[in-house]
Every structure is written in structure tokens, then in C-alpha cells.
Specification:
- It is rod-shaped, with a radius of gyration of 50 Å.
- By secondary structure, it is an alpha+beta fold.
- It has 2 helices and 10 strands; from the N terminus they run H-E-H-E-E-E-E-E-E-E-E-E.
- 14% of the residues are buried.
- The chain folds into 2 domains: 87 residues; 136 residues, Sandwich (Immunoglobulin-like), CATH 2.60.40.
- Helix content is 38%, strand content 23%.
- A hairpin with a 2-residue loop joins strand 9 and strand 10.
- The strands form 2 sheets. Strands 1, 2, 5, 6 and 7 form a 5-stranded antiparallel β-sheet that branches. Strands 4-3-8-9-10 form a 5-stranded antiparallel β-sheet, with no helix packed on it.
- The termini are far apart.
Length: 243
């Protein structure tokens, strides 16, 4: 005969206690694992932030170095360009000063001027001779005359003397030639040409004391130049004539 006895409450409490302990142990283990995982994730996130910060700092340093290098290179290029431009401007100015401008006078009779001044008053014709002593052709050669330093007026006659007159030493090659007529419309001077002569009609000498010419031309770069009282400078194409 089997006798079944009903467990008493102390045994039930023990079982529940064991189960509770097991649950708590599992919870503690899970909580510990969660905390460990959180700590690992936090450390990884921190390491990632540190790595990103280091990368950003490195990128910023590299960018600054590149910008500094680019700035230095640009400064060097600007300096070289400015130096080249200065040297080029100096060379162009030197070429411009090779255009020779020479004021002169011509007797009224030689110019066949219509003398309208009173008899006994000396008269003369202001002249300027322009010669190209440079290495390149100049164009648009023109001149004005300032009788008083305050106003300018045009010359009455312009003559171009070609390179033919430099060929006299060639002897028989030109002995039977008479040479070309003076060109009154040509405004081009090659380095081989004799030059150009601008002549004003006769004026009373007393009215042109201290008079001077103003001469302009264009060089082979297309730059317009002006010679005035010994000073040569570049000018705009549309510059007005001034004394």
C-alpha cells in the first residue's frame, strides 16, 4: 500500500525561494551582460568619436597646409607675374624712348608760308622731326603744337621721308633714280625710314617763345604713347590732346 502525503508549506516556500533565487540570478546575469554591452558600446562610441576628432583634426591640418601652400604658391606666382609685368613695361618704355622727337624751326620762305604779320616782325615756322630709332615699326604717328603751353593746334603739313634716302651709299644701285615723292599721308615709321616732319605755318617769333610739340604714336603691341617735353608715357586711345 502506497501512502501519498501532501507537501507542507515549508517545502513549497523552499521551492519558490529557489525559483526566485534562480530568477534573480538570471536577472543579475542579464543586467550585468546589458551593462557590459552598454559599457562596450559606450567605449566604442567614445573611441569612434576620438578617432573622428583625430581624423577631422588631421584633415583640418592638411587643409591648412594645402591652403598655406596654395597661398604661398599664388604669392610667388603673383610676384613673378608682377616682376615680369614690370620688366615688360620697362622694356616697352625703353622702346618708346627710342622714338626721337626733335623740335626745329623753318624759315617762312622755305615753307612758302603766307606771311600775314606786320612787316619787320620776325616770323618762323615751328617744326618737329620724328624718327624711329627702335627695333619695331610704329604706326598712327601724329603731332600737335603748343605755342603758349596752354593750347594745342595742328601742324599744317606732314611729310614722310622713306628709307630711300638711306641708300645713297649704295652707289650705282640708285644713281639713276630720283627717289619717291614725300608721302604726305603716311603715318607709319619703320626703323629704316628717315623720319617724319611736321611743319606749322609761319608765326611771329615773339608769340611762340617756349613753344613745344606733342607727338603720339602706337607701338607694335598696340599701345598708344605720347612724347611731351621730353617725357614719354602710355596714354589711352581716346585721350584728348592737351598742352
Amino acid at each position: 500500500m502506497v501512502i501519498v502525503t501532501k507537501p507542507g508549506w515549508p517545502d513549497e516556500l523552499t521551492a519558490w525561494g529557489t525559483l526566485a533565487v534562480a530568477v534573480v540570478a538570471v536577472g543579475v546575469a542579464l543586467f550585468g551582460e546589458w551593462r557590459a554591452g552598454s559599457r562596450v558600446r559606450a567605449e566604442r562610441a567614445h573611441q569612434a568619436d576620438v578617432l573622428n576628432a583625430e581624423r577631422k583634426a588631421a584633415d583640418d591640418r592638411l587643409q591648412r597646409q594645402l591652403e598655406d601652400s596654395a597661398s604661398q604658391l599664388q604669392q610667388q606666382l603673383d610676384h613673378a607675374s608682377a616682376a615680369a609685368r614690370t620688366e615688360r613695361d620697362r622694356a616697352h618704355t625703353a622702346d618708346a624712348y627710342l622714338v626721337q622727337v626733335t623740335p626745329a624751326r623753318m624759315p617762312a620762305a622755305a615753307f612758302r608760308s603766307q606771311i600775314t604779320t606786320e612787316p619787320g616782325i620776325p616770323v618762323t615756322c615751328p617744326v618737329v622731326i620724328v624718327r624711329n630709332r627702335g627695333h619695331y615699326t610704329i604706326t598712327d604717328v601724329d603731332a600737335r603744337f603748343s605755342p603758349d603751353g596752354r593750347s594745342v593746334t595742328s601742324y599744317h603739313r606732314t611729310e614722310h621721308f622713306s628709307s630711300y634716302y638711306n641708300m645713297r651709299e649704295l652707289g650705282g644701285l640708285v644713281d639713276d633714280l630720283t627717289g619717291p615723292e614725300h608721302d604726305f599721308g603716311r603715318r607709319i615709321l619703320t626703323p629704316d625710314d628717315i623720319g617724319m616732319r611736321f611743319t606749322h605755318d609761319a608765326l611771329a617769333e615773339k608769340d611762340i617763345q617756349g613753344c613745344y610739340p606733342v607727338v603720339r604714336w602706337r607701338d607694335h603691341h598696340g599701345q598708344r604713347w605720347q612724347h611731351r617735353l621730353g617725357i614719354v608715357k602710355p596714354i589711352p586711345d581716346a585721350a584728348q590732346w592737351e598742352a
